[in-house]
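Re: the request from the purification team.
They wanted to know what the chain is likely to look like in 3D before they choose a buffer screen. I agreed to run a prediction and write the result into the notebook, where they can find it.
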Amino acid sequence: MKRVIIDQQRCKGCGLCAQVCPRKILVLSGMININGYHVVACTDEELCMGCGNCATVCPVTAFEIYKPVPIAAAL
């Protein structure tokens, strides 16, 4: 399941998210968005723990974070 969604058209390539990622899976990519910025990309979504650090520091709110919710056992 995808845990981090990056709106690459909003990204301004500041790299703040890559600096605060505890797993170091966010990197500036070679891709350039419509505004001419090198955008950030997630190198391994399976390693993402959904901590939300990237979304917290992003000045343009380019991140959506999803955490799996455990389903309680039926009684």
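For the purification team: The beta strands are 4-6, 26-32, 38-42, 63-65.
Please add any questions underneath this entry.
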